Automatic annotation (TrEMBL):
GO terms for cellular component: cytosol. It comes from Hymenobacter sedentarius. PANTHER family: 1,4-DIHYDROXY-2-NAPHTHOYL-COA THIOESTERASE 1 (PTHR43240:SF5). The keyword tRNA-binding does not apply. Keywords: Hydrolase. The keyword Transcription does not apply. CDD domains: PaaI_thioesterase. Belongs to the thioesterase PaaI family. This is Thioesterase. It comes from the Bacteria. Residues 46-121 form the Thioesterase domain. GO terms for molecular function: 1,4-dihydroxy-2-naphthoyl-CoA thioesterase activity.
Amino acid sequence: MTLEEVKRWTASRPTLADALGIEITAVGADYIEGRMPVDGRTHQPMGLLHGGASVAFAETLGSIAAATRVDRTKQATVGLEINANHLKGVRDGWVRGRATPVHVGRSTQVWEIRISHEETGALVCISRITMAVIDLPAAPPIPA
């Protein structure tokens, strides 16, 4: 999928990514990238980037990346597990994320997501998501 195709597909309905201000910025053969603001939408009460926002960002990137690897007319990808290590606090600006495949198989995919501060490049969070690849139900036959 191209960046424009991903943007059209993800813009088809409102999502958590919209509420958090997440933007997809690049799509390549072996990665997907995005960015997320660090502001009131993504802060925890002490004024730092909320760990849950980082995980939501990581899951957004990993889920979209996984979906680009299947025929979405026949299969879907759904999250099985996600983990995250929060390494550095961020108070403002933007964070950038990059999802890269660790394993892309017939029934599962594993993606690593690295989130860094846009301005300093400091690694903020590293996450890994495991996705299941499931078959969509076949369309019912058309009656004669």
